[in-house]
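Incident log, support desk, overnight shift.

02:14 A customer reports that sequence design results differ from what the structure should imply. Their input is reproduced verbatim below. On-call engineer (initials T.W.) acknowledged and began investigating.
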């Protein structure tokens, strides 16, 4: 009985995998468009060895002003216990 259950499970897995990705229809990726850029944002685009387009977005530093301290409070105890250094 265990062999029958294992065989049925293997057939179900094989049928599910075959149904999930039909060989007759290759997957097409949407056209790669880099994200919109803002001031202080750096975007790099690269294609890896598998043909996957990767967008890396990094932001610049946040100025240490009283307004930014109110919006983005420091996480460290030292940052919370010092005055802002910016204008």
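02:41 Re-run completed on a clean worker. Output:
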């Amino acid at each position: 009985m265990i062999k029958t259950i294992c065989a049925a499970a293997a057939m179900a897995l094989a049928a599910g995998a075959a149904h999930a990705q039909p060989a007759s229809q290759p997957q097409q990726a949407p056209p790669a468009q880099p994200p919109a850029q803002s001031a202080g944002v750096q975007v790099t685009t690269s294609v890896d060895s598998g043909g996957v387009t990767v967008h890396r977005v990094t932001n610049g530093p946040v100025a240490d002003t009283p307004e930014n301290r109110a919006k983005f409070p420091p996480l460290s105890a030292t940052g919370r216990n010092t005055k802002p250094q910016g204008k």
